[in-house]
Amino acid sequence: MAQNSLSSFQIFLPFSDTLKYTILAVAILLLLVAILLLAYNVYKYLQYRRSLYKGENVYLGEPYSEKKSSSNILWKNVAPSFLEIIRKEKDSKIQLMQKEMEKLEEHLTPSQPSTESLDDLDSNPDHVYRGKLKFSLLYDKKKMNLTIMVIEALELPEYSRDPFVKIRLFSKADEQQSSVQTVLYEWETKVVKNSRNPVFEQAFSCTFKESHLTSIGLKFEVKDFDKYSRHTLIGEVRTALKDLKASKTLEYCEDLQEKTKDIIGEVLISLKCLPTAQKIEVGILKFKTSPLSTISERDVYARIDVFTNQQKQKHQKSSLRAKSKVTVFNETFLFSLPDPLKTHCLILVSLYETVVNGRKLIGQTSLGNQSTKTEVSHWDLMMQSLRQPVAKWHPLFI
User: Fold this and answer.
1) If 0-12 CB within 10 Å is exposed, 13-18 middle and 19+ buried, where does residue 48 land?
2) Does the structure show a pLDDT above 70 at 122?
3) Distance (Å, rounded) from C-alpha 243 to C-alpha 134?
4) Are 101 and 307 in contact (CB under 8 A)?
5) Helix or strand or coil: residue 43?
6) pLDDT over 70 at 361, yes or no
7) CA 326, CA 349: separation in Å to the nearest integer?
8) What distance in Å separates the CA atoms of residue 292 and residue 128, rounded to the nearest whole number?
9) Residue 147's pLDDT is what?
């Protein structure tokens, strides 16, 4: 009778004691893991409910689920660390855009006396010492040849790492009232790496008549080279050639000054506001250069950048046109403009010409609804003639 009275446990689990205890331990361990997971999910759910009461926009941690407030469709599950990285990158991009807008507003708005190029935004304040530039000039009267020797730069700011010098030779138009100038020649020195006192010792030369000395000026721009971004402008030096004595070398050592602008042409721009469609139409009609400009066999095009409420819209480009004294584009471009009365809008128009290794900036101008001029601005004229294009000439700066 004792032999037949086996327990049910022995009947259904005819295993060794070691295996029985192992299975029991695994079952208890799985139960504990399940309890911990349940407790953690309850904790995260309570956190989520608490954040909803506070009105916060949170990512749902390890459950990885997020719901759109405008619909009942669940977003795709995304790891919280990845979402956090995206959020941080977005915040940093917004901060960079705000800084860029501040620079553009400072240098590119029509209320300012000059317009700053996107290629070399100047972040150096007026009162900061910028260093010196040493150069020499020699005009040979017999050969009608001007030799420009860039010797060295001295005591450049600490942030200057790889400096170089860009040289422009300007000639003013014959008209006394005209402020438009012509860039006759452009040169660049070599880049001297890791030096605040770079030695260049480079010479450049050009030919023109002695009678033209009174209308010609030189501008030296010392810049910090950046392969992956815009070159940083350190400062500039200007000198007129009217006092240059023939056949005698004159050596200069001048302090670098804040960048100033030169007008090298005009562009005819039209604006049209479409309030119902919440858009603005920017038209590039004509581009006019100085009468003294030499026309090379190059194509030109316009690029339009629009910034609304510190948000940069996708830029648009015109088609290529053969460069001439008066280049005709007659092209229009549409950009979003949600509220013309409240939206802070800045329009930057850049003219480029094609060269062998890319493009070359001809000049830039800017306009928008932040003008403080006493005269009626182009933007105000547009707002007074809704749905009608209003055209106006704007100077091109370089």
Assistant:
1) middle
2) no
3) 18
4) yes
5) helix
6) yes
7) 17
8) 37
9) 94
**339-to-281, 336, 369 alpha-carbon distances in Å:** 14, 9, 12
In the block, residue with structure tokens 């005698």: 248
Give the H or E element holding residue 94.
helix 80-108
Encode burial over 203-222: b for 16+ CB neighbours within 10 A, e otherwise: ebeeebeeeebebbbbbbbb
92: left (phi over 0), alpha (psi -120 to 50) or beta: alpha
DSSP states of 97-113 as a string? HHHHHHHHHHHHSTTSS
* Element containing residue 80 per DSSP (H, E): helix 80-108
Domains in the chain (CATH in brackets) are: 120-255 (2.60.40.150), 263-397 (2.60.40.150)
**Backbone φ/ψ region at 265: left (φ over 0), alpha (ψ -120 to 50), beta:** left
The residue among 398, 113, 368 whose CA lies nearest residue 262 is: 398
C-beta separation of 126 from 258 below 8 A:
yes
Q: What is the pLDDT of residue 62?
A: 43
Rounded to whole angstroms, how far apart are CA atoms 143 and 140? Answer: 6
Indicate the DSSP class of residue 309.
T
pLDDT tens digits, one per residue of 243-293: 777 678 899 999 999 988 999 999 999 999 999 999 999 999 999 987 667
* Cβ-proximal residues to 372 (8 Å cutoff; 6+ apart), any chain: 111
Mean pLDDT along residues 69-78: 46
pLDDT tens track for 144-156: 899 999 999 999 9
Ramachandran bin of 319, using left for φ above 0, alpha for ψ from -120 to 50, beta for the remaining angles: beta
**Alpha helices, DSSP H, located in 188-291:** none
